[in-house]
Amino acid sequence: MAVVVVTDSSGRLSPEDGRRWNVREVPLHVLVDGEDLRDGVDQIPNDVHARAHVTTAGASPADLADAYRTALADSDGDGVVAVHLSAALSSTFSTASAVAREFGSSVRVVNSRSAAACVGFVALAAARAAARGDALDAVEAVAREAVPRGHAFIVVHRLDNLRRSGRIGTASSWLGTALSLKPLLALDVDGRLVPSQRIRTASKAHAAMVDAVADLVGDRAASIVVHHVDNHDDADVVGASLSARLPQLESLTVADMGPVLSVHVGAGAIGVALTVADR
C-alpha cells in the first residue's frame, strides 16, 4: 500500500483534491449557542462569524484517534503523516501529538505553523510524495520541508472578532481602538498571528497585502488561494491583482475561509495563503 496523509478541516482542501490524493480530514468544531457543530460534517450557519455566542474548538482526541487508526489500517502498516493547524493558533496539534503516541512511530505529526490553505498545501505536498511511493520517513520529510514555503496574510475589516478570539495575543495594544483601522496581519515563522501594517482603509490594506505577496514571491513559481469571509467581490479583485502582478503563478483560486477561522477574523476579512517554490 502507501503512506496515508491526514489533515484537519482548517486546510480548506477541496473534496476533489482530498479524493484525488487520498487525504483524510478531521473536523474542527464550532460551538453555536452550546451546540457542537463539526466543520465539514454538520450544517453550520453562514453567518456564524456574526453571532454573539460562538466559540471554536480543535479536533477532538476521539476523532483524531479514529482517523489515525483507519488511515494506518488503510496504509497496510506503511504509516500516517498528519498535518495540522498551527500549534500557536489551536489545540489541535498538541492533542494530535498526544494521540499519535498511542501508535508509536507509525504516525508522524507535523505542525504546519500556518492556517487555511497553507495547511492544505503542506498536506498535499506530503500526499503527492505518498502517491509516488515514498516511505514514511520521506513523506514526513517532504511535509516538513513544505512548511517554511508557506506564507499567509490577512486583512480584517472588524477588530471585535479578533480581540474576542485572543488570537492576536500581545499585539492587541498595537491595534488600538480605532474603529476604522484595517490592519494587515501575517503569520510568522512560528505560526503566530502578528501585525504587519496599520492601515485606515480596506482598499489600501488590500493593496498593501498584494504588494507584500508580490515582493515575497518575486519571480518564483507559486500557488495562491485568496480566502474571504462573506466578501467574494473584494477577494476577486485581490485575486485579479495578484494574477496581473505574478503571471508565473501555477494556480490561483478564490475560496471561503471556512467557519472556524471566520469566527476569529470576522465579516469582510480577506486573506492570502501561498506556497512558493524553492529558489
UniProtKB/TrEMBL annotation:
Keywords recorded for this protein, A-Z: Lipid-binding
InterPro entries, per database record: DegV, DegV_C, DegV_domain_contain
Record flagged with keyword Membrane: no
One of the record's GO molecular function terms: lipid binding
Keyword ATP-binding: no
Protein name, as recorded: DegV domain-containing protein
Origin organism lineage: Bacteria, Bacillati, Actinomycetota, Actinomycetes, Mycobacteriales
